[in-house]
Amino acid sequence: MDAITRYVGIEPYLERVFAPGDLEVARFFVVISLLMWVFVLWSILSSMLLRYTMRKPLPTVTRDRLLESAHGLRRAGRIARRTGYVLLAIGFAVSLPLLLIGIRSAWQSFALGAVMHFGITQPLWIITEIHSNMFEVLARPAQ
């Protein structure tokens, strides 16, 4: 993980913000975040492929299942997005008193919340939105 963060060029920023004991956790979340954005690109490509290959009309039972799945995915996406906002707010609330006191790694909790928000929950929300849109498009009757 150390080599990946150095290759990306984010290692000096992580060393500046995080305490030495928590640097490994930050590296882990940065690598997971990069993987999540790769999954976002993969889900965009796979949804385009499924839309292209499944243009034939579907039976009514399958349409209902697809609409159920789309609604479930949208609900899960909203929960993930709200969870990300909560993590960001908690990180800020924890880092604000530490910043006022003058601790060296005061921004650490806010940075960890931001990495988790923009690197894990936002890509998860985007993936669920992409797939729920794909299911809704596939459930529409052919014209």
What can you tell me about this protein's structure?
- The chain has 143 residues and is an all-alpha fold.
- It has one domain.
- Helix content is 83%, strand content 0%.
- It has helices at 2-8, 11-17, 23-53, 60-101, 108-139.
- Helix 3 (23-53) packs parallel to helix 5 (108-139) and helix 4 (60-101) runs antiparallel to helix 5.
Features:
single chain, 143 residues, mainly alpha, 5 helices, elongated
Mass-distribution shape: elongated
Cα(first) to Cα(last) distance is 50 Å
Output the helix-strand order.
HHHHH
Whole-number tally of structural domains: 1
Strand content: under 5%
Low-confidence stretches: none
Report the C-alpha radius of gyration, rounded: 20 Å
Average of the residue pLDDT scores:
86
Please, how many helices? 5
- Main beta sheet strand tally, sense and closure: none
Number of strands: 0
| Helix proportion | over 70%
SS-derived structural category: mainly alpha
